[in-house]
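Reviewer 2 asked us to include a model.

Predict the structure of this chain.
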Amino acid sequence: MKFSTKRFSMFFVFIAVLALVAYSPSVANAAKTAKVEKSDKMGQANAFFDANKMGDMSDFDPSNPIVPTGDTYKIAVVASFSGPASIVGTLFWFNVQWVAHDINKRGGIFVDGKKKLIEVIKADHMGKPDQCKKVVERMILQEKVNVLWGTDGSHLMKVINTTANQYKVIAINGATLADDLQDAANFSPYAFQTAFSNSQVGRGLAYYYGQIRKKEKKFYILCQDFGAGHDIAEGFKRGLKEYYPAAQIIGEDYHKLFITDFAPYLEKIKASGAEVIFTGDFPPDSMNLLKQARQMNIMLPIANNYMDNPDALHATGVEGTKGLVNINSWSVDNPHFKLPGHVKIEKIWTDLLKNKWKTPPYSQMKSFEHFAGYYGVWTQTLYWFLSVVERAKTADAEKIIALWENDTYKFVNGKVVKMRACDHKIIQDLAVSEFVPWEQQKDSYNLAPYYWFKGISFYGPTYVIPAEKVLPWMDQKLDRCKGKSDWGK
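Predicted model (structure tokens):
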């Protein structure tokens, strides 16, 4: 899928390219209803993030990272580090470096009989498949990296996974939401998907409306006209049939990417009698949709997965963002900061932002103000992988794979995740948050000053969607998965 070369702001370029992670061909087989089994199958976590063991982060500066050399354990961040989407690589690099800095301050990880520091290397694929193949091969053959972490675009993640499989190197999909990356046609035993998927977005929001909120019944679907938009919409429709049969879809439209005029669609929505707009749009489309809806005095709730970036939301203000309903893979139920370790890492993060991170984009973007969202997911899933390496006590990919399959891990916020063995997809709870004005955010953000952001509505009431209600799609055509339940058993 080729995207427009129109000039966007730094933020919009980041989100638009990041949202390429959502692209995938329609997964028709995903229509099969997941078998519902009890969430106790997650079991007790085999390992967890211990904030008490964190290294000294006081000198962590993403603009001037401390990168060790020599006999190190090497992670290649494969992403766009040049061109119009270079901000994507910058943000990926920031989060992976955060983890490396922490682990290195602890003395590294024990691998093959010795402690090794973590070295993070930039691998610029420039957003091009041919360049992606070249840079990944250079990382493996010349830089001798132990693991590949990426990326912005599922078409590029496929290149990474295929190349990693060829050379028997582990590849971690930390960001892309495509359902088909681990299917029978694309599966590699060396590839692991630590991001949730497009179809789970739709089913999760359907579960929220049908089993938790139980109020609105009339929904209007408006999504982008490409693979991810259709997959998210199909997930929502399947979810309504499963969890909310009384609901009605009273309208369904798909629009071209990066349109500037949503008025024709919004007029139809206004006349339809819809009670909720459902969209899988990513910016700039999602934010243009929100802005124009509010300008037309359409104040309906908008159920979404990409309308949660505070930099963009500030353009719409408190009233315009009130009533948004967002699903994500990081949040827990209220209050968000229940555990001492979670409180500790949030305070370390916010203190560094205030006192240390003085250069763009870290000093400019409001999304850096909290340890949350993508940053929580990217860092904690990488900590998980490194804990597997530490427990395996080796850099041998085969032994790491064997240990990571069916492994469980507890994040710093208390959330427990599992790696499904047969197709290497993450099993996890999701969460839905209703956006409220800053005065009401204290139930969610239970630390001083008791709000996330003052100029917008943001996370308020937050509800957990149990893992068994949104299990990731499993391709039964994949030999490893044949005859297994959606838990992988």
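The chain has 13 helices and 18 strands. The chain has two domains: 1-13+197-328+430-465, 32-196+375-428+474-481. We have added this to the supplementary material.
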